[in-house]
Amino acid sequence: MMNRMNEYDKMRTMQLLQQHDWDWFITIHQNEPDISHQWLLITEAVERMKERDNELMYWFCFAQGGISQKPHAHGVIRTSLSRTLVMKSFRECNQPSVKPIDDDTRLFGYLIKQALQITITNIGEEQ
Fold it and tell me: pLDDT exceeding 90 applies to what percent of the chain?
């Protein structure tokens, strides 16, 4: 089992997330929940989105929780791309969930609670 974020990282990440407006919340579950494979799929999707939106901002964390306790990934992105184009960018992922963000405070708490120490971070290139 992997380690969760420590309290300092949780606080720092929460502050960074709250500094921005986000468009989409993404959850990725894979049939074979290997974090290195999920990492590759997410970074490839990010590169595809960057080709169409060079101002793309994102943050992804790997999480372990829920009934299955299998590792999965959650992320938030800010982009000018439509939901359809975001979904197409994650085409190799097993039915990613892409939802608009309406209650960011609750969502960020959920993300931070589950987050493992492994993240894929841009957050405005971490000001």
Answer: 42
Tell me the per-residue pLDDT of 66-99, one tens digit each, with 9 for 90 and over: 655 677 889 999 999 999 999 999 988 877 899 9
What CA–CA distances, in Å, run from 117 to 3, 54, 56, 73, 112?
A: 6, 27, 23, 12, 10
| Contact (Cβ atoms closer than 8 angstroms) between residue 117 and residue 62 | no
What residue segments make up the domains of the chain, in order of their start? 7-126
Q: Which fold has domain 7-126?
A: Alpha-Beta Plaits (3.30.70)
d(CA 16, CA 126): 8
* 83-118 b/e (C-beta count within 10 Å ≥ 16 → b): eeebbebbeebeebebeeeeebeebbeebbebbbeb
The whole model's pTM is what?
A: 0.86
In angstroms, the CA 62 to CA 118 distance is 6
Of the candidates 104, 114, 101, 109, the one whose C-alpha atom is nearest the C-alpha of residue 29 is 114
| Owner of token pair 């800010």 | 78
